[in-house]
Design a protein that fits this description.
Residues 22-110 form the RNHCP domain. Pfam families: RNHCP (PF12647). This is RNHCP domain-containing protein. The chain has one domain (3-133). Helices cover 23% and strands 19% of the residues. The chain is built from 4 helices and 6 strands. The chain has a 4-stranded antiparallel beta sheet with strand order 3-4-5-6, covered by helices on one side. A hairpin with a 5-residue loop joins strand 5 and strand 6. The longest helix has 13 residues, at 106-118.
């Protein structure tokens, strides 16, 4: 093991200050993920299925013992218009936010963004009734 590999393994918070150039295989879809084309020095999720692993408590610290699969459950827009993915650990339920990478699957991102609109917390038939109650004519065009 060379000196840099020892630092990665034993230095707490190594990835907070150093780029992660490691290639990994996604545990969900099996795709080989490389740091190239991510648009960032920190590749932390699969660009295909957007899944990740629960390895950090704080970004880059690699101290989590959980190791569960972090599934993408939502997207949100940061100040300045940058998108980020909300991941939830399937094992312990922890939520985390990760920047969208340049090579992330745009169809997967859009499907996650559209999920709340496709499954509202009320029947779609009530939209006409609610529109009428709010002063509209109630018709769907």
């Amino acid at each position: 093991m060379n000196r840099e590999n020892k630092r990665k393994t034993f230095e707490k918070g190594y990835y907070k200050t150093h780029a992660c150039n490691d290639t990994f295989t996604c545990k969900v879809c099996g795709r080989v993920c490389t740091p190239q084309n991510a648009g960032s020095d920190h590749r932390n999720h699969c660009p295909n299925c957007l899944s990740s692993l629960h390895v950090d408590e704080e970004p880059g610290d690699r101290v989590s013992d959980c190791g569960g699969i972090m599934e993408p459950v939502a997207v949100w827009v940061r100040k300045g218009g940058e998108w980020a993915i909300i991941h939830r650990c399937k094992r312990c339920g922890k939520l985390s936010s990760n920047r969208v990478a340049a090579d992330d699957n745009p169809m997967k991102l859009m499907s996650i963004a559209m999920k709340p609109l496709c499954s509202p917390p009320f029947p779609l038939d009530y939209i006409e009734e609610m529109t009428a109650l709010m002063g509209g004519d109630g018709r769907m065009r």
